[in-house]
Structure formats: structure tokens, C-alpha cells
Amino acid sequence: MTAPSVTGQATGSSLTPVLRLVTCGSVDDGKSTLIGRLLAETDSVPIDQLEYARRTRRGGSTVPVGEVDFSLLTDGLEAEREQGITIDVAYRHMNLPNGRRVLIADAPGHEQYTRNMAVAASNGDVAVLLVDAARGVRPQTHRHLTVCALMGVRTVIVAVNKMDLVEYDHATFESLVGIVRTTAARLEVAEVLAIPVSAAAGENVTRGSDLMPWYNGPNLLEALSDWKPSSSPASTAFRFPVQFVVRADGNFRGYAGTVVSGHVEPGTEVVVADSGRTAKVDRIVTFDGDLERAVIGQAVTLTLDHEVDVTRGDVICETGAGQVQPADRFAADVVWLGEEPLAHGRSYLLVSGSRSVPATVTNVRHRLDVVSGHEHAARLLEMNDVGRVEVATDRPIPMDPYSLCRDTGGFLLVDRVTADTVAAGLTRHVMRRSFNVVHQAYEVDHEARTLLMGHAAKVVWLTGLPGSGKSTIADAAVRRLHAMGVHTYVLDGDNVRAGLNKDLGFTSEDRAENVRRVAEVAKLMRDAGLVVLVALVSPYRSDRDAAKDLYEPGQFLEVHVDTAVEVCAERDPKGLYAKAAAGNLPNMTGVGQSYEAPENPDLVLTGTGDVDVSVQLLVAAILGE
Amino acid sequence: MTALAVPYSAVLDELEAEAIHIYRETAAAFRNPVLLYSIGKDSSVLLHLALKAFAPAPLPFPVMHIDTTWKFREMIEFRDRRAAELGLDLRIATNLEAVEQGVTPFTHGTHEYTRIMKTVALRDGIDRYGFDAAVGGARRDEERSRAKERIFSLREPGHRWEPRKQRPEFWRTANTTLAEGQSMRVFPLSNWTELDVWRYIQRESIDIPSLYFAKPRPVVERDGNLLMVDDDRFPLRDGEQVQMRSVRFRTLGCYPLSGAVESTADTLESLIAEMESSNISERAGRLIDGEGGGSMEAKKAEGYF
Ligand SMILES: Nc1nc2c(ncn2[C@@H]2O[C@H](COP(=O)(O)OP(=O)(O)O)[C@@H](O)[C@H]2O)c(=O)[nH]1
Hints:
Low-confidence stretches of chain B: 285-295
Distance between the termini of chain A: 50 Å
Radius of gyration of chain B: 19 Å
Structural class of chain B: alpha/beta
Bound molecules: guanosine-5'-diphosphate
Number of strands of chain B: 10
Order of helices and strands of chain B: HEHEHEHHEEEHEEEEHH
Mean pLDDT of chain B: 87
Oligomer: heterodimer
Largest sheet of chain A: 6 strands, mixed
Helix content of chain B: 25-40%
Strand content of chain A: 25-35%
Strand order of the largest sheet of chain B: 3-2-1-4-6-5
């Protein structure tokens, strides 16, 4: 997590002080040698580390002992040093002679690590892409270009390395660069620069080259020193995600955050994008005194001229045409990072800036072949895949297109159980603004219906293995409630699958969608005033949690019908366990798929106990006794 | 070359803003964060940045010092003075059991001593107070194996650091969610260099212990290192002579494990000049990781900061 400066504008004619660089290339293209030389020749490496690179040799090195093996300067963790490969992004710094700081994110060269490449490129202003002059452009080159373009890298410097092996030949250089430029043009990379280098000999790295008089452009160091964003910045719209509400003596209330796009001054009218409330900026507070203006990249605290409700995660932005509207459906590109594939219908935590909100991937539109650029139909995305998806959030949130601002257009998807980051998402466009689906309020509302019904409405979610006794208990409980004058309905898994959900199977994705739909239907029925009993295996905790998230506390009861799998298999009322045992039901819960028992159910009923006792407990819980 | 130049201060501004952003994220996202305060220059900068991040409000979380009981005396005086001046909620964690058992840097190997007095004490301190995030001053430039360290670095139950579980970091967005038993280490100075720290101290007039400045101090030469005899617990070996020499320290820790460098740099200006001309990585002076580049990684897997 580093602060990208790419959406920023160089203020006036000055240079951006910190340049974020991503380096990429296939294994053995000479990336370590090139970066190592750059670091060494800009005095960015301590002397003892240089000494180490002079003394130490690893297998296959052709550099004579006594000379610096530059590739050793960029070594990382013990394990991979032994294997001689780089498996994770490494971060380094470089001091340029003009005072500019370069923060390098060094991405590994192995092709299976698209995700690491994406991490490294996510903050990059500039990419240095290595091409081996002797081996030519390779599939990896296209992959790296694609990921750089996807993640919003503005400038790609193509370093055609090992020019010494092709006798510093101009034509070879031009033909390789031509291929790269074609791909870059298709990907709409803003700027491409090509430099012929020899990392080993030091040609065109930090000095020019007499051996390539046909090249008049800058050497690599010059290119990095002089870099400026080529085109006008993508966005100058003011964006300020609130991280922290500062309260202090004397009724001080300020909103702390970083300006991630545009700028702001006292007196500027702003809007809290989430709520639509407007206010004027009163002060821009910092430890060192108030500012007259805050620009992109500055971490400040804003106070507003009057009280408006602002909480962590809200985005304060400019009013007018540059305002961002909340929405709850987005089309996005995602880079899948998780070891488990993407499951649509499953609820993840969407984290964007300081905000997190439950979200589901409702559809996978296609998978992108990052080498050819082709889009393939896909239902799933697996680790290192890139694809276009549709995302639905639980409540409307303001998201910018990623091309406008990385911080307010990018998001993470987080697994709700393991807390792992499973995807990085780039918002492409809003699919449904919440103002298109304004929630219609009706006079006769839930309260009114509840009054007429004479009892509270509730959703009771019975989860458990097939054959555990969910339907039996639900049936008996509903008979009891009905006799008491309580209006009920049972949503039974099997019955729903015969109609509403007959398009769904039993894979984990389809199960997630099954649960989602049942939860939404139950919600409507509860709103209508009914006590709804759901009898559904719903084996996955995350799916049930997503269902629960639709409800306010007290509206939803999770009930675990806890019966040993042996007992269920023995009973086997629908003959499912027999089929599974015969190998005809690969996705049978308890046999082929696991069942994740609730961790904190509101009630546990034993499916082998007395049904009357279970009913009594259940009815008491429903009526809140 | 290029006509335009970048003032150093502009680089510091960006690093500062990044650190403040990280602080605010930490304070808001975690239930019970703590600032690990080790009294050195990096900690002084960390503390200064923390004050900046939440101004005009005070620091919203406590500060913890892992006290091995072998710190330089001046460090402890400095710590207590700063804590009083700033009104810090200071917690001190010491492995008292080990102190009672007589664990000292002289009786135990440096690796074992560090594990017992620092790593174990840190883990116990975090557990005792129930901290779920601990902010530290580690920088990526300190050692090669740190180059892959995240800003938000995840610890598994038992404070284990698992390279494979580390979360990818995109943009300014951090995944601060914790699963059962997990905790976070947070490094706002990740992208800073040692020189940045010094330049920042200079620019912001940050108070640091005077041990960083050269002064005649009582030292002995042992195994090629200059060690300061800070109190009478330092057992002299046969033939060792305590001499007064003008020395300073690049890093501050336990005095028997902190090698001094001979120097006459007694001001920030002269110190920065001396450092710019020497350009040796600072850990070279720390005895605890003399065993080669990867040893820090092994210690981290055990839960060392
Ligand atoms: N002839 C020649 N060899 C090079 C050049 N750059 C790197 N190499 C060699 O290519 C091999 C791979 O280099 P390395 O930097 O480890 O590649 P990486 O896997 O991309 O980091 C090593 O044997 C280098 O010595 C170059 O400019 N010319």
C-alpha cells in the first residue's frame, strides 16, 4: 500500500518529487542486472551490500568474482534466494541525481504471477518493461503490458536489453519496439518510450552509448529523472475519502483524510457523496497550521461550515458535474488473487479507500486472455485470472471509474471468513445508479401490516445436513403457530428449487445464488408481515452470513438443526445419501461437499430429539419468549 | 543533465503524508492499536508523525516500550521525559521471569537473548493488553530481506509471520480485516531511508537522545566492536581497558549489543554529512544480525518485530 501519484498533476513546471516505478520482464531478460546497476550507479545501495555482490556468486552467474554482480543487489527472501527466483513484489528506493526519489516495485518474472504484477503496477506512474534483444518479444511481454495498462500505468519505457548480443543493431531494436508499440496502442497506453540498453555493459543505463550512435533519445536514468505525466491528468475532480473523525477540545470536529484527486480551498462548496449533503469547507487543518489550499497527496483535516453527518468511509467531493453519485451495481475488471476461485452469489467485503461494505459478484461476463487480449466466455475466475464482472453492493456507494481515480475507483474484495484479500477490482462503469431505482415508500408500511397481523414478523433460518430434520421441525412448528393465529409460510429448499431456482445446480456458486434468492424472497415475505421459516441446507457460513446481512438485528434467527451425518445417512428420507454413496451425487453436502456449522446460532435443535420439545423451543424463540 | 531539481523537502512531504495516511487508517480500523516506542531516532520520528496525524486531538492510542532492562540509561531518562511532556499513555513490557532467571546479554548468545528479552516480551505485551495492531518503525532500506515487507504486515495466531499469507497491497487501500487470532504490524516508515529520517529530524527539530551525537564516552574494544560501559553490570574481560573515546551510535538498543562508531559529529549537520559520505547500511553496527542477510527473516518468523 503506497500512495500513487498518478492521478496527480505536476504542480506548475516542477517535477513530482516521488516517482513510482514498476519493473517487469521475463525471467533472465536481465531485469535484476538492470535494476541493480541503476541502484549501484545512483549510489542507492549501501557499500556493504555492494561488497556482498562483489564476493558472492550464485549458480549460473557469468560475472567474474571481484566485479559487482548487479543482479544480487535485488535479492530478497532466503527461500527464493536459494531457488534463485523472485516470487513476490519487492520494494526499493533509488535516489536520482536531481533529487527525485524513485520507489521501485519490482514484480517477479514468472508467468503464473499475474497477481503480483498487478500489485506492483497498481501504484505505478511508469513501468520499465524489459525485452531481451536476442530472444525477442515473448508472451510475457504482452502479459506485462496488458497488466500495466489495466492498472493505469501512464508511461511504459521499453528497455530493449542485451543489445550487446545483437551487435547493437538498429533494425533489431526497431522491429522489437514495433511489436510492443502495436500492443501498447491496442491497450491505449498513454505513452511509450523505447531505449536500447545493455544492462551488463552499462550502455544507455546511466550514461549514453557510443556503440549505438543511431539512438538519440535519453538514457534510462535521464528518462526517469525528467518524467512528467504526458497527457493532462485523468481527473482534477476533488475527492477526499474520510479516514478518521477528529474530535478535540472546544467542540472541534474535523474529517481527516488524504486528497486523492484534485484540490480544495476554504470556502469551496463540497458534498458528502454518500448522503448528498452539502457544506462549505471552513478550514484545512494540519499540525503545522491551517492551509490555504490542499492538493492531491496531502494528508489534512477538513472542517465544514455547519454540522453534517460524516463518518469514516464517506467521500467528500466537489459539487456539480464532478460529483460522484452513489450506486449499487457496477461493472468492474477484477484480478483474482485468491486460491479459491470466484464464486458468484457469494458475499465478500468490498473495501474501497476507508470504506467496507458487503458485496456480491452477480455475474462473470468474460475472462481476459492477458497475452492475446481476447475475451473468453467464463463462469469462473481462478487465481491470476483477469475478467470483467458485475458487482452488487448491499447499499449504494459512490465509486468513480478507475480511469478517473485509482483510489476511489479501485477496490478490494475480502473473504469474510479468512479475511484474505481475494481480488483487486477496477470499477469501469456504474450499471445502476440508485437514483434510477429510488426506493418507493408506501403509506401502508411494515408497521401498519404488523399491527393488522397482531404479531411481529420474523425470518427463521433452519440450516443443517440433508435429512437432519429441518422440514419435519418446520412443519410441526408451523402447525403450532398456525393454530395460535400466527401467519406463517415455509420456504423449503426442495420446493423452491422446483420453481424459482430450477435453473440452479449444486456447485458452491449455485448454492450461494440459491441462498441469496431465498433470503431475498423471505425478506419480502417478512416485510409483508409473515413469520417465514426457511428450511434450507445452506452449507456455507459465508452464504448464510450474507443472508443475515439483509436483516436488522432481531428480524432473523439462525437455527442449527444439528444431527450427526451418520444419522442423516441412516434416515435418508429422499434416498440422497444412497445415491451419493453410489457416486451419483458428487456435490452432496456431508458426503462430497462439506457442511460449515454455524458458529453462533441463535438456537440449536437436535434432530434426534423429541420433535415436540424442538417445536416448543422454536416457537418460544419466534414469539420472543 | 536535467534542468529541474526536486528539493529534498518535497520528498519528505510526500513520505510524511503517506505515513500520516497509514496512521489514520490504523487508528480507525483496529480495535486496540499501539505504538511500539523503542526510544531511538525512528521512534522519535514515528511519534512526531503520530502527533501530526491526529492533531488537534491527542494521540488516540497507547505507546509501548519493550524494556529489556539493558537499555542505555539515557534512553530510559529520555523516554520518561518525553512521555511526561507529551502526556503519553506509556506501557512498559519486560520479560520479568527471564530477568529473575538471570538472562543477560553477557550470559546468553545475542540471538537467544534477543528472542527471550525482546521477541517474547513483545509478544507477551501485545497479548496482555490485547493489542490487535502494533505500529513500528521498520524501514525497507534497513536490510535486503525487508524489501518485501508490507506496510500492513499480517501476523498469524501466535504472532507468526508467514510470507505466504501476506496481503497484496494496492493503491492506498489496506485490507485491515482480521480473522480470529490474527494481528497486524504496521510500518508507516516503510518507504523512508535512514537519511530521510535524519533529514526529517533536522527539518522538524525532533528531539532525540544525545547518544546519537559524538561525545567522549567510556568504551572497550571487544571483537572489533566498540562497546560503551554504561553501568557497572558490564563485566570486563582480562586485559580489557575502559577508554574515553569520542563515539556516537547509529542505532540504539541494549548497550552491550550496540556497537559505537568513532566520530566527532556532534551536531545534526555534521552527522548527516558523515553519514552521506560513509553509506554503510546501519544494521552493520547491530550485533544481533551479524549472521548474514537472511537472519532477520528467521527472527521475524519467530515473531521478532
Ligand atoms: N549479454 C548480456 N547479458 C545480460 C545482460 N543483462 C543481463 N544479462 C545476463 O542475463 C542473465 C539474467 O540476468 P538477470 O538480471 O538475473 O535476469 P532477470 O531474471 O530478468 O532478473 C544473467 O546471466 C545476466 O548476466 C546484457 O545486457 N547483456
